[in-house]
Structures
1.
Amino acid sequence: MGQEAHRVCYPPAGGVAVRGWGLLTGWGAGLQSLPTLPPVATQGQRLLPVATPDLASERLRRATRECLLGVAAVQAALDHSCLAPHEVAGARTALVYASASSYAAANWTFVTSETENALHFPYTAPSAVPAEVTIQFGITGPYLTLLSGANAGIEALWQATTLLTTAQCDRVLVLGVETFQECAELYATGRWLLGTPLLEAAACLVLERHPNLAAVRYRAAWGTRGLASLVAGEREGALASVYLCTPTAPAGQVAGHYLQAQWPDISLVLLHERLGFCLACAPLIALMLAVTAGQLEDVLLISQWWDAWALVRWPELSSQAGH
Amino acid sequence: MMSGTPHQPSDDRIAITGMGVLSPIGQGIEAFWSGLINGVSGITAIERFPTHDLRVRRGGEVKQLRGTLGLERPLPACRASQFLIHAATEATRMARLSEAVAAGGRVAVVIGSALGGIAEAERWHEQPGDLHALAGAPYDGPTRQLARWLDATGPVLTISTACASGATSLGLGADLLRAGAATAVVAGGMDVLCRFVMRGFNHLRSLTRDEMRPFDRRRKGLLLGEGAGVVVLERAQTARQRGIAPCGYLLGHASCADGAHITAPDPQGRGLEQSIRLALANAGVRSAEIEFISAHGTGTPLNDRMETQVFKQVLGARAYEVPVNSIKAHMGHTMGAAATLETIMCLLAWRYGQVPPTLNYGEPDPECDLPYVTGQARTYRPRLSLNTAAGFGGCNACLVLAGGE
C-alpha cells in the first residue's frame, strides 16, 4: 500500500456503467430464468426458495446459506463481466451490500436456540455476508452494509455511484441477498408487512465509472406525500420506464395507479407481479432488466418500505447493453 | 482533489450543528463530558436481564432513562428507539432543527447499529402476541421510530458495519448532504445490551473479568456497554445562513474492508489503514496535520496492537507525538454507538481544551508504545482529529474531524 492516499474527487463527475451481473433466485439462475409474464403457478405459494450453492470450499464450511448465496452471486457477476477474481482483489474494488432479511435466519436461530455456540454468533452480524465475499475475493476497498428494508437496494446503487464518481474506487460490486425460508413462520405472522410469494434472491451488479455518461440521480423521501414529492422532481427529461418495487401488492397497486396517472405514456413495471417479492434485491434485478431492454431514455427505479420512498434515475442504459 | 491539498473550501464542509448523548456515564452532553474528564466508570453489574449463566455479568448499562428532556409524547416501547429519541432530541434542540424544518428543510435520518432491533426479537420470542415487538425486530425498526418521532421528510437509512456503524452512518449522512438529498441529517449510532449479545460474546470468550484496559500490557478483552450518540449534520453554508455556530466539522470519512476474517481484525490492519488514508484524502488533510486520535481501543490484545501499528504506518515518526485515547473503559464497548460518542468526545475536547484519559491504564506494552492519554485528563486542544472504528466482518471506518470556530 502506498504512503499517499488515493485521489478523491469532489464534486462527483461523470456517470456509471453496468458492466455485468450475477443472479440466483427461486426461479433459477440468470435473468433468462425469470418468468416473462405474471406467473400463475405461484398463486397460493408463500415462498419461492433458492437452492443453496454447492461451493465445495473448505474455507466456507461454516458459512450460512445467505453467505454462500452472496459468494455465488458475486462469482456469477464476475463471470458475466469477464473479470477474473484477482482483478477485484485489493483496495480499488468496493463492496456495497443491501438486504432486508438475510440476517434474520441466523439471528432468530440464535435467539431461540439452546445450543448456540461460538461459531454461530459471528454469523448473526449482517456484515457476515459481505465479509465472506471480501475474504473470498480479497476485497479491501470501500465497504458498506445497508439494511433499510426494501429501500436498501436503491440506496446501495446510490452509494456505489457516489464511490465511483468521486474516484474512491474503480469498481463496485453491489450485492443484495434476501432469504426467507428459515423464518417462514415469522414472515407468515407478519403477512401484513410483506406480500407473497416471497422470492429468495442473490443479485450482484458490477458497476464501473464511465466519464461520458450522465450522472445517476438519487432521491428519497419519508411520509405520506413521499412518492408525490419524488415524482414532482422528475418531470423534466424523457422517461422510458418506471420499475416499481413495493413490499406488498396493495401498496404496488396504489403507487402504480398514481405513477400511471402522472406518466400515462411510460412503461410501468410492477416487479412483484412478475417475480414475487424480493425486497432489496428487486431494484438490482430491475436494473438488470432495464439494461437488457436497451432503452434509449432514462429509467426510474422506485422502491418503498413503510413510509419511506427512494428512487434512482439511471440515464442512457442503451449504451450499456453491449457490456 | 488530490491528497495533501489544502482543506476543502469552507462552504463545502459538513458542519456538525447539534450533538446528543445517552451513555452509561451520563445522559446529555454535559453529564457525558463530566464523566469522561473525571474518569467516571459506568461499568456495573447488569440488572435488566438474567446473567447467571454468563462468565461476565458486568457492562455499561444505562440504569434509568431520565425524563429531563421534557418529551411531550409517550416513547415507543422499544428500548433502542428510546435511546435514539433521547439523544436525537438533545441534538436537534442544540441545532435548532425545528427552525430549519419550518423553513422548508428536508431532514434525513441515518442510523448505524450492530444489533438493530434484536432486543425486540427477544421480546417477541418471550411474548409472541406483541406485534409491535415483531415489527420493531428488523435492523431498521429503531431508525423508523426515530424518523416518525422527528417527522422526517428526507431519506431514512439504516446501516450496519458492526461496531464501526456509528462512524459509517455519519459518513453516509455527509454523502446525502453533498448529493443534495437532504438539507440536514440526523445521524448517529445506537445499541442496547441484551441477552443475545451478552451470550454471543460470552461464547467467543472475548469479554474480560478484569477491567477494560486499552493499550495496557495486562489487557485481556472488552466489556460491553449500551447507549446512543446522535449528531445533526448540515452544510457549513446552511448552518451559517441559519446563524448556527457549528460544534465542529466532519471533513472526511471512509469505510473499508479487511477481507481477512469473519470476527478478528486483520493483524496487519489493511482495512483500517485504507480507511484512514481514504478519509484523509476525502478531507483533503495531510496525516502531518492530525493533532489527536480517538482510537477504537477495545482492550483486546489483537485490536490495540494492530491499531498502534496502523497509526505508525500512517503518521510515521509523528505517531510518537500525537496523543491517542480510548474512552471505552469508561462505559464499555457501546458497539454501534461507540464511534458517534467518540466523535462527540473529539469535538468536546476541542471546545473545552481537554482530552479525556484512557481509564485503567497502568503498565506499558512494548507493542503499544504511542503517547496514550492516561491517568487524568490532559490539557490540550486538538483541532484536527482522527476517529477510528472497527467491527465484525472486517468492517473499518475512519472520520476526520475539525473543531468549530
2.
Amino acid sequence: MSMGAEKSYEYMMDSLRRIIDFVKEVSVDWWWFEQGNIPVIRVRKLSINKEVSFDYLPKVPIVKALKIIYSNFELIRKLPPRNRVDYALKTAQDLYLVLQAISYIIDAHNLADKVQEAREYVARMSPEMLDKFIEVANQTIQRIREILASNIFSWPSKREETEKEIGKVVNFARNLVSGKESERGEVPA
Amino acid sequence: MLSRCVFLFGKKRNIEKRILEQAKALRDMIELTGDKQLNTQAVREALRKVAEDVSKLSDIERDRLARRVDEIFEEKIAILRGWRESNVRKIKSMLKELRLSKKIPQAKFNRVKMLDSQIKLYDAQLMVLENLRDILVDTIQRGVDPVTAWNRVMRSSTVISEFVETLAEHAEAYEELMGEGVSERELEELEEEYGVKEPEEVSRKELKKLMEKYGVEE
C-alpha cells in the first residue's frame, strides 16, 4: 500500500471504530429493542483459510454486523491487490445497509419513546389506569419490534402507519386520564 | 562531590520509581475478575514498603510523588466510573422495557439483577480504590502509620468480599436459569414461539424497588 492509501485506510478504520462506539453508546437506550441485541441484518463475512470465502451470515444484531464489517476490512488488506477491490466494494455495500438500518432503529426509537412518555403521564396522573394502558402500549411496542426484526428495510413503508398507531396510544393515555373511557374502542387492536 | 550528588539523585529516582510501581501494583490488585483475588497480605506488605521508602524523600519529593500516585489511581477510577455509568444506563433502559411488560419474564429480571450486582461491584471497587489512594497519598505526604492504614484497608476489603459473594450468587442463579444445553434453550424458545409456555412472572414489587433505586420514574 502506498503512503496515501495507507493513510486513507487508517482514517476509514478509525471512522469505523468511532461508528461502532457510537452505536454501542446509543443502543443502550433502546429499551424497546433489547438494547440493540435483536438480530436484524445479514452481512457477508470474509474468511481467509486455505481458500477465501465471503458468505452471508444469518441475521445478526447491529453492533455485531459492524464488527464483522470491520474485521472484513482488516482481512481485505491481506488479500492480493487484484482481489481487494471486489471484496471492499461488497463490504462497503453491506456497511451502507447497516448504517441505513441504524437510522431506521433510531427513528423507531424516537417513536417508541413517545409511548414511554405516555406511560409516565398515566402513571403520574391516574396510576389506577396503568395496567389498561400497559396492555395497549405493549402491543404497539411489540409491533414496532416485529417490523424491524422481520424486515428492517420495510420500515419506511410502515413508518406512517406506526406513527398513527402511536398517536392513538398517546390519545388513549389522555383519554384514560381524563376519564373518557368510552373512546377506548379506537385503540389499536 | 558532584559524583556523590549524582549518586544520591539516582538513588532517590529509584525510590520514586519503586514506589510508583508499588502503587500501580496495588491499584491493579483491585480487579476481582477471573482468578484475581484481593490479596490483603500483599496490600499490607506493599503499604509497609511504601511507608519505609518515603521516609528517605524530602517534602517536595513526597508531594510530587503523592500527586503522581493520585494520577495513577485516577486513571483507573475514571475508567471504572465510565463502566459503572454505562451499566446504570443499561439497567435503566431494561427497567423501562420491563415496566411496559404485562408479565415480567424471569430471565430478563435475572439479567437486571445481575446488572445491579455488577453496579454494586463497581461501587465497591471504586470505594476500595479511593480508600487505597487516600491511604497511599496520606502515607506518602504525611506518613500515616501503617496500622491505621491497614485498618482502613481491612474495612474496605470486607465490604468488597461481600459484594463478590452476592455477584457469585446471582451468576449461579443466572446460569441455572439459562440451562446447561443449547437444546433446552431452543426448546424453551420454541415453546414461547408457539404459545405453549407462558414466561414466568416475578413480582412487580421487586421491579419497583430497582426502579426507585435507579431513578426510573414510576
3.
Amino acid sequence: MTAIVASSPTRNLPDPMLPRPFRVQRVRKETQDTFTLELEPATGEGDYPFAAGQFNMLYIYGVGEVPISISGDPTKPHRLVHTTRAVGVVTNAMRQLKRGDMLAVRGPFGNSWPVVEAQGKDVIIVAGGLGLAPVRPALYHVLAYREKYNNVVLLYGTRTPLDILYRREIEGWRSRFDVDVHVTVDRAMHPWRGNVGVVTRIIPKAPFDHLNAVAMICGPEVMIHFTVLELEKRGLAPGSIFISMERNMKCAIGFCGHCQWGPNFICKDGPIFSYEEIKPFFGRRGL
Amino acid sequence: MSSPPLRAGSRVILLPAGLQQLIDTLRRQDHQVIGPTVRDGAIVYAEVEELADLPAGWTDEQDAGSYHLRRREDDAYFGYSLAAQSWKRWLHPPRRRLWRAERAAADGDFTLVAEQPDPPRLAFLGVRACELRAIAIQNTVFTRGPFTDPLYKTIHDATFIIAVNCGYAGGTCFCSSMGTGPRVGAGFDLALTELLDAQRHAFLVEVGSPRGARVLQELPYTPAEPADLAAAEAIVARTAESMVRSLDTNGIKEFLYANADHPRWDDVAARCLACGNCTSVCPTCFCTTVEDTTDLSGRVAERWQRWDSCFTLDFSYIHGGSVRGTSRERYRQWLTHKLAAWIDQFDSSGCVGCGRCITWCPVGIDLTEEVRAMYANDSTGAQIATLNIV
Amino acid sequence: MSTPSIESILARHPFFQEIAPAELGAIIEHARLISFEPGRLIFHQGEPAAQLFLITEGKVSLEVFAPQRGPILLMTLGPEDVLGWSWLFPPYRWHLDARALEPTQAIAIDGARLRERCEANHELGYQLMRHSVGVIEQRLQAALLQLVDLYGK
C-alpha cells in the first residue's frame, strides 16, 4: 500500500541532518500535561506543506531533538502546529517555550494517512489519548473535502474528561450533521454525562459499511490491538485498516537504525502502515 | 611501458617496486593511503607510506573467539586473511560533528552553523572481496535511499580502492557461501593478486575503473601472460575450496521471519554478553546515535553523531522502557536484520561472510553455527567457546 | 407508526437468542417497558436485584459513590446493552449504582420469576447463564483495559 508522501522540503536540502530555525507564534495548554505549539519559519514567510500523518524532528537548543507528529491542517500550511505531551527532557523544555522563542525543525518525514484511498468510502477514525493529535490532520483533510467521502466517524477515547484533547473543536465537529463523533473516557466523576468505557465498545455499532470503509487508528499499541480486533469482527479487511506506529528515532532519515521494526524503518516506511502489511510483526514482543 | 591504453578489464604485471610507486603516486595526488600494518599483535588498517609498513611475511589464525598472528614461510605482503577492523571507520567515521549552533545570550535566538567538511582523500590498499562488497552495501544504505548522507558520499566517491584477491581462506571466513568472494567483484579501481613463488614476487593487476587506468598508466607494468592469469585463477580457486565455514542462505529470510520464537534464541542469549563487539567489527553495521552538547557558557551547542549498537539496552527505548529489553531480543534483532530484514530493506544480504563477528566475539558465538542449529531444530548449547584473544 | 413490541425486541436481542418461543412468551408476561428521566437512579448498591434490564434507548452509568468525592462513573451502557446480572446469583443484591444520564427506556424483566423459570427449565437456565457469562466476560475485559490506564505516561 502506498500512502501519499508530500514532497519533503528536507529531502531537497543538501544536508538532511541540519535543521531550520523556527519561531514559536503561539503556545496553548491543552490538558494538564499536553500543549500545542504553533510555529513559523524564523526567516521570512514560508508555508510548511505536509501530508496528514507526517512528523517533524523538533530541536531545542542545547537539549536535544524529538520526533513529533504534525497536528495541524494540511490544507492550511501557513502555520506549523504540533501538539505534544511533556514526558522527557526535551518535551519538558519545549513546554517552557514562549511566543517569540526559537527552536529548530527538520522535516516533514514519513508517509501519510490514506486520505485519497479513502475517497468514496466510509472513514472511521479511532484515536486514543494523545493519538488524536497525529490523526487530526487526516480529519481536517476529510472535512475539507467532505463531499468525497461517505460516512465519517470519529471515535475518541481518553483517560478522564480532563484529558480530552481539543475539546472545543470536538464539540464543533459533533455539532456538524455530517460527522459522527463518539467520545469516551476510562473513568469520570459526576457531572460527566458522556460515555465511560473503552473506545472499542463503540465499534460494534459504529455506522460504517465494512465492505467500503477505511479505518485510521492512532494511540497506544494495546489500544490499537483491541481496536483492530473489533474492526475485524465487523468484517473490515486488514488492508483497509491503517495504524500509526512509534519507535525510538534519532535521525528520521533511515540512517541511524533505531526505529526499525522488523524490516520496516518507522521513519521512512511508516509511521503509517496498513494492518495487512505489518500483521506478522504487530504485537510481537521484543521485535 | 606497453602502448595500448589501459582500461577497465585490462590486466598487467607489477613488481613490488611498482607497488611502491603506486603508493607514492597516490600520495602525490593527495590521497592518504590506508593499508594493513602489524600493531598490538594484530593486523590493523592504518596509514602506510612504504612497502615496509605492510605485514610482509605475516598471516593470521582466526577461529571463534580467537585471533593469533603467525609468521609465514615467505614474505607475502597480503598473506593474511582479514584485518581486525574493517574500512568502515574511514568511510563512516565513528564520531563526527553534524553541526553547531551559536547564541549570544541565554534563552536568546541561535544560529545554526553547517559543517564544511574537508575530509582527506583516501586510498585503501588491500581491500578483500568481502570488504569490497561491504563497502557497496553501506554505500547503498547511505546513498540509495530517499535521503543521502552527503559526507559519506563525498568520502566514498573520492576513495581510491585497491582490492586484493585472497590467497588464503581465514578460519572464520565464509564469503564463498555468501556469494561475495573470494574473487573480488565490482567496485575497485585496481585489483591485485599476489603471485609469489620461487621464481618471482609480482602482482597481477586488474584495472577496474578509468581512474584506476589513469594511475596505473604511469607505473612500470609489463603485460600479463596467460600463465599469469592461470596462476591467479588457481590461487582464488584454492582459496574458495579451502574455506571451512559456510552459511546456507537458501530461504533464510522467510525462515528467520518465521522463527522469531525458535528456542535457539534462548540458547544464544545464555551466551551472548550483548557487548556489541560484533557490531563494531562488522563492515556493514551502520547504526549511529546523536549527542547534543553545550559548552559551559551555553553559547555554543553541538550535535555529534557516533556509532551505536543495537545491543545496547536503550537502543530501542521509548515511552519509559526498551522494546528489546532482553539480550535474547537484541541478538535476535541483530541476526534477523543482518540476514533477513536487510534483504527487504536493501535488496541484498547484510552479511558478506567476512567472519569478523565470529573471531571477535568474546564467547565465540558463530552465526553460521547458530543458523545451522536453527535449521536442524537443535536448541542445545554449542560447545563452550574458548577465550583466546591475543 | 407502531413501536416495536416487547416481544419483537426480545426475540431479536442476542441475550434471548436460541430460547424457544414458548419460553419467550412466558418470559414476556413478566416484562414491562419502563422509562427513566435523566439523573434518576435506576438501582442502588445493596438493594435487592429484582430485575434484569434491557436498555432500548438512552444512556445509563454504572457508578460507585465515594464519600467526599461523589459518584465515580465506571462504565456507561446504551441501547441493546444488558443491565444487571446480580438477579442470577445469590445474594441477589446490586453491587453498584445505576443512574440514567439521558432519557432512558428499558425493558425490565422480573428477576425472581425468571429464576423460577430457570429452575423449572434447565435448558432456559443454561441459555440465560451462558449469555450472562458472555456479557460479564465482555464487561470484565473492558474494565481490565480501563484499569491499564492506557493513555497514561
